[in-house]
Amino acid sequence: MPSFKLDGQDIPFESGETIIAAARRAGVDIPHYCWHPGLSVAANCRMCLVEILPPAGRKAMMLDVLEWDAEKQDYVPAKKPKLVPSCQQAAGEGMEVASASSEHVTRARSAVQELLLLNHPVDCPICDQAGECRLQDYWLEHQGTKKRMHDEIVHKPKGVVFGPTIVYDAERCIVCTRCVRFCEEVIQDPVLEKRERGNLSEIALAPGRELDHGYTLMTEHVCPVGALTARDFRFKARVWFLRSAPSVCMGCATGCNAYLDFDPRDNTVYRHRPRENMAVNQYWMCDEGMLDYRRVHDGRVLSARVRGKKSTVGDAVEKAAAVLLGVDPERLGVVLSAQHSNEDNFALLRLGRDYLGTGHIYVSGRAEGLGDKVLKHADKNPNAAGVTALCTSTPPKSFGELAKDIHDGRITHVLALGSYSSDATKTDALTKLQGLVTLATREGPVAKHATVVLPVSSWAECDGTFVNAKGMAQESEKAITPRGDSLPGWKLVAALAKQLGLPMAWTKLAQVRSAMAPEAGATVAQATGAEA
């Protein structure tokens, strides 16, 4: 692979790759505002300027400039090399590039940073971007001087409602046009535009439009400063108090890679944001996925119930075992969940199929919704492919088929994971069961009719593996501690098996994964680190 030198370091590059893109791939940061690896090049912020050193024996192109002379207290003629934006300049074999090592680049970046802050309001104490704002970071790294302009700043509109989810502050905007390019190029809905020129420039909505497509929060996320803010996160938390866990979006079968940001002080999740994975979601997430973190807290089952009354988990496990004990395997249905991890589903499948002896396996989950050509999948479940892969001999039947089997009297008892029903019109059949035990994370039609409800931790509260629509197994890591009395689903299944006197003495997730690997296939084993 060809390479060039950046501040003396060899940087390999691919044909057609720009200097900044190659440097990023090599782990070297070149400061920038307007450049984004998933968007077209604008080269308007000029923060990524670098110096291309001439080959030996050749002179660099020099520009005539005026430079301030502190002794003469006046501007004097001077020369400097022509700097180029690294986001636009293609890398070349043997090229020598000076970035941090160039005095001219250092001075240029300082000047750019000062220019961007001339009219910027001192909103940092109340700005949601504080703590992860590039204006703050680059001021420390590339400027570090006090403001020299003492004139009144140019005032622009503040708190402009761009749509149902986004608020715009034009005074904070550096007009990098990332949001404009994202809407036009990725979403193909050019709802935003830049108007005016110079220090009067600002971002505006297209006439008669709102920022209301399905990726508005991503439009806010690409903003490198505090100009665009999300109503959902606005004034709710300070980022320096938050911690992040690598997660997988539970919103649909695409399985976007994400970060779950939470405050460990109050065990609360505050936002979901994209994590780069070029094979799955590239750099993006949809609004549904970025807001799906709410299900960690809303509508949760946080305590066990026996016939509608609150109970301890221990007592509820005993009652669940009593419901299942002695049931004819031909009358027992096991309902897996496309909303839950492979580990939880495998544990339930092992208990129901291998130890209780039933061959009646079903699957439930959220009903299908709308998809699109960007990221959204019509299947609104994160692990439908994983459940299918676990059922190696016979594919699981649908919730509608379960309802029919109950109506026909073939199924009298059900052991279920989750509380969703993919067909809301079929849930009345559950009232005809003689016994229904469900392990549920959230309230729903199955939990409503259950004889015994056991509280299961959400994906944010335990490690788990999910297989997306492409068949890729991906691990979601634990962020917060389990809320209420909830426990990981596999752990509750193991407790139920122990109460039934069955040999499923799993106490660690690694034990479940080790047992699961031969059935789940190599992809799951690879994602979890288990040996197939």
Written account of the structure:
The protein has helices at residues 19-25, 103-117, 134-142, 178-186, 216-221, 287-290, 313-324, 342-355, 384-390, 399-407, 445-449, 489-499, 509-520, 522-528, and strands at residues 3-6, 9-12, 49-53, 62-69, 74-81, 84-85, 96-98, 160-161, 166-168, 192-195, 202-205, 228-230, 243-248, 257-263, 268-274, 304-306, 309-311, 332-337, 360-364, 413-417, 435-440, 452-455, 464-467, 473-476. The protein has 532 residues and is of the alpha+beta class. The chain has a seven-stranded mixed sheet with strand order 17-16-22-21-20-18-19, with helices on both faces. A five-stranded mixed sheet has the order 2-1-7-3-6, covered by helices on one side. It has a three-stranded antiparallel sheet with strand order 8-9-12. The longest helix is centred in the first third of the chain and has 15 residues, at 103-117.
